[in-house]
What we know:
This protein is of the alpha+beta class. It has helices at 10-17, 21-44, 54-63, 84-95, 168-179, 185-197, 202-206, and strands at 50-53, 73-77, 99-100, 103-110, 113-119, 127-135, 143-145, 163-165. The protein is 40% helix and 20% strand. The strands form 2 sheets. The chain has a 6-stranded mixed beta sheet with strand order 1-2-6-5-4-3. Strands 7-8 form a two-stranded antiparallel ribbon. Strand 4 and strand 5 form a beta hairpin. The longest helix is centred in the N-terminal third of the chain and has 24 residues, at 21-44. The radius of gyration is 17 Å and the shape is globular. This is Nucleotidyl transferase AbiEii/AbiGii toxin family protein. It holds the Pfam family AbiEii.
Amino acid sequence: xxxxxxxxxxxHIVRHAGQSGSAGREAAIMDVAxxxxxxxxxxxxxxxxxAFKGGTSLRKFYAGQxxxxxxxxxxSVADIGTPxxxxxxxxxxxxxxxxxxxxxxxxxxxxxxxxxxxxxxFGTTGTLDAKLDVNPPPWLEPEARPxxxxxxxxxxxxxxxxxKSVRIEENVAEKIARLNRTTTARDVYDLVWIREHxxxxxxxxxxxx
Length: 209
């Protein structure tokens, strides 16, 4: 049960997706559904022991509409003594069967790993899914970040809270390290955007480690 009453329409979703086509519309639906879910988990206190990370956190807390849509939910536990499996179980309990506004949520297993499943009447398929990962703790102290303001946020029925997130320096270092194993367009896009919008280069940030 939520204290908020979102009022989100198809028109809001279309405007949020911009010129990104049908695939972008599906990503926009998941993006909005995850905003509401993150707020709900924060209000339950379940994010107190977690730090949000990855491309999705970069878009929500740094790039906003200028960033690419990213729908994977990646977290790190904040404390080295916290078992990741226990956190996944708590998230599963909180998410399974949850309904926020027009969105219904569930957790499924794919190849032994959890995925977030979202249902709504907005998409062409009705059901969307995204990877859900809980990782070991970050090297650097996480920081609480505000959302980059977007027009869609005015339809959420209330404010969005600060979310504890992995520092951008560590996000960058992970993306650069991953380039040594595999090159993805997503990581390259994120690194180029970061280089264009921050004075320090990604390579300089890696020296923090």
